[in-house]
Design goal:
634 residues; mainly alpha; Four Helix Bundle (Hemerythrin (Met), subunit A); 4-stranded mixed beta sheet; two-stranded antiparallel ribbon; 21 helices; 6 strands; elongated; membrane; ABC-type transporter activity; ABC-2 type transporter transmembrane domain-containing protein
Length: 634
């Protein structure tokens, strides 16, 4: 059977080479599927981008309305907005022209703005607010899709109209509230000032009095003690200089006179301890003053004092280590360099404090003055708090806050809120560039199936040869020609699609998938026709008709009638479209391989069943074809 099939295929190729007409016909068979796919993809590339060609009439009969001395015409406002809108070809005409134009097909739709439009919109200012209405007139007979587009445009326009009305009504309502808020705002500064104090001090005035008394007592102590500490700064500076001088003596005694070296170290420890004690008292006094006044100018001084304490402690630790080395007859020479460096650093820190004594005195004096100022102002502040408490208790604070807030209302913010209280943030998984790319999986799959039907309709399933072949051999032999045609049809579709710049995630994967689908479709259609003759062709066409709807290529299967939902999983192009969608928008490999695997079932089953039944049904199919020819009609 394989040898015979090979002979049939070779004979088919020879016949094609030797007959130019056959080449032309086959070229047409190869090109027609691509024309179907590419023309449809091009036609649906981005239809919503050209809606500006659709004529929509606008008839504005709004006579306007006067409110609080201001003239409003919301209809004119909408017309001005539409003049800047390029979604449709807006035609501004009178009402009669608009209605007749829609009836006659001159306009796809019309918007009729009534004469009382502004009046009903602004009825929000009355005790009987009414809902404004714009009449939308559409001619559904002109086109099946155009009314859907204009309906969408009308919905979008309604949103825009509502936003404009919100802006107008917002200006009226919140403008009035703003006027009322201005009255409350006259005392806003005083109210907010006293409110802040009341939150902290109301009911705690006695505690504030006690705190001030304690602060006054502390400042008296500071004012008495500080001059004494200030006077000791030069003394500390002198002690630091003495310590620095004794280092030189210590250095000369270390090698020659250990006993004098020991006494020198001990004297230096005593001097350093005195310095540390003085600095600690100074730190304590300044820290206490800072806690009482909160004066930030004291912090740098406190930091300098604490830095001096740290360096003096370092010197003391090193002196103690040198003393221990001398007592244990160890050589302390290795520590002397570090000791000298530490003494120099401590001396520099104390010199910095002593040299800035006047500045420190001024800062301490200013801190004391600030507390004195607080004492002087406190009776006035205390009286204001008590007076404010009495005023606030006579007013509903929450209502006052709301009225004051209205005076500062951001009108644009209010408009934005009522125009869109909730903002929808969109996230697209596997986005597709345009409508044509989104529909390309459907049109490509359908075109390949149509190409297969054209091929079996124009090329005979029968082999004319002097040599007799079995039905199975003819099936296998002629299949080679059809598979070559299917391959070429797929390649042309791939090339044309890529030249059109249809979105694909991978050109190579797209090409392989399309060729795979074309070959699978050819095996199925060829097998049906080879087994059942003209009946097989009819079956392929019926399957095509069902697949156009049931594969979900355009509308989701869930939106289709139950019959099409039921047959959807049993149609080959369901999986062809699914695989191509993965390649176009972005591959989810689990879905891709599921579609590829499911699609392979159809040609496999068709091939096996045809081999089984070919011999049995072939003679009946040939008899049917001969009878049809004899009728003169086929």
């Amino acid at each position: 059977m394989i040898k015979g099939a090979r002979e049939i295929f070779k004979n088919d190729i020879k016949a094609i080479k030797n007959t130019p007409v056959v080449l032309i016909v086959l070229a047409a068979i190869i090109l027609i599927p691509s024309l179907y796919a590419l023309l449809n993809i091009q036609a649906t590339w981005d239809p919503y981008a050209t809606t500006s060609n659709l004529k929509v009439a606008v008839a504005n009969g709004d006579s306007g309305c006067t409110l609080n001395g201001t003239q409003y015409n919301v209809g004119n406002m909408l017309v001005e907005e539409l003049k800047n809108n390029d979604k449709f070809n807006w035609q501004f005409v009178d009402e009669e022209t608009a209605r007749n134009g829609v009836k006659n097909g001159n306009y796809y739709a019309a918007l009729i703005i009534p004469g009382n439009f502004s009046q009903t919109v602004l009825s929000i200012d009355t005790t009987n607010p009414q809902q404004a209405t714009i009449e939308y007139v559409v001619n559904d007979k002109i086109n099946a899709i155009a009314p859907k587009m204009t309906n969408t445009g009308a919905d979008t326009l309604q949103t825009k109209i509502n936003s404009e009305i919100v802006e107008t009504v917002d200006g009226i309502i919140f403008g009035k509230l703003s006027d009322v808020g201005e009255l409350a705002k006259e005392n806003k500064a005083q109210f907010l000032k006293t409110k802040s104090m009341l939150n902290e001090l109301n009911g705690k005035l006695g505690e504030v009095d006690n705190s001030l008394n304690q602060g006054n007592s502390l400042m008296n102590t500071v004012n008495q003690i500080w001059p004494q500490f200030s006077a000791k700064l030069p003394q500390m500076q002198s002690q630091a200089d003495t310590l620095k001088a004794k280092y030189d003596t210590l250095y000369s005694y270390i090698q020659n006179n250990p006993s004098k070296a020991l006494s020198t170290v001990q004297d230096m420890e005593s001097i350093d301890t005195t310095i540390i004690t003085g600095l600690r008292y100074l730190d304590s006094l300044l820290t206490t003053l800072y806690n009482a006044t909160g004066d930030e100018d004291l912090i740098p001084i406190i930091n300098k004092v604490e830095d001096g304490i740290t360096k003096a402690n370092t010197v003391l630790n090193l002196l103690q280590e040198v003393e221990q080395d001398i007592k244990t007859s160890n050589d302390p020479s290795g520590k002397l360099s570090q000791l000298k460096s530490s003494i120099d650093e401590m001396d520099a820190a104390i010199n910095l404090l002593a040299n800035n004594r006047d500045n420190i005195n001024q800062i301490v004096s200013e801190a004391s003055s600030k507390l004195s100022m607080a004492n002087a102002k406190w009776p006035e502040v205390k009286s204001s708090i008590q007076l404010a408490t009495a005023k606030v208790n006579s007013i509903d604070e929450a209502d006052l806050d709301r009225l004051i807030a209205f005076s500062d209302t951001d009108q644009s913010g209010v408009k934005s809120y009522f125009e869109s209280p909730v903002k929808l943030e969109k996230t697209h998984y596997y986005p597709v560039d345009n409508y044509g790319s989104a529909l390309s999986p459907f049109y490509i799959a359908i075109s390949l199936w149509i190409g297969c039907i054209i091929a079996v309709a124009m090329i005979s399933m029968r082999v004319k040869s002097k040599k007799e072949y079995s039905a199975e051999t003819v099936y296998m032999g002629r299949m080679g020609l059809f598979l070559v045609l299917g391959l070429l049809q797929s390649v042309v579709v791939v090339v044309g699609t890529l030249l059109m710049h249809v979105q694909v995630s991978s050109p190579l994967l797209f090409a392989l998938t399309t060729i795979y689908i074309g070959l699978c479709a050819m095996v199925v259609v060829y097998s049906l026709t080879s087994a059942f003759g003209n009946a097989g062709k009819a079956m392929a066409i019926v399957i095509l008709v069902l697949q156009i709807t049931a594969t979900g290529g355009v509308f989701p299967p869930e939106l289709l009638p139950s019959f099409f939902q039921t047959i959807n999983p049993y149609l080959p192009l369901t999986y062809a479209v699914g695989a191509l969608r993965e390649v176009v928008a972005g591959v989810l490999w689990g879905n891709f391989w599921r579609c590829i695997g499911a699609l392979a079932i159809f040609p496999a089953v068709s091939f096996v069943l045809t081999l089984i039944i070919k011999e049995k049904v072939d003679k009946r199919a040939q008899w049917t074809e001969e009878k049809l020819k004899e009728s003169g009609l086929f």
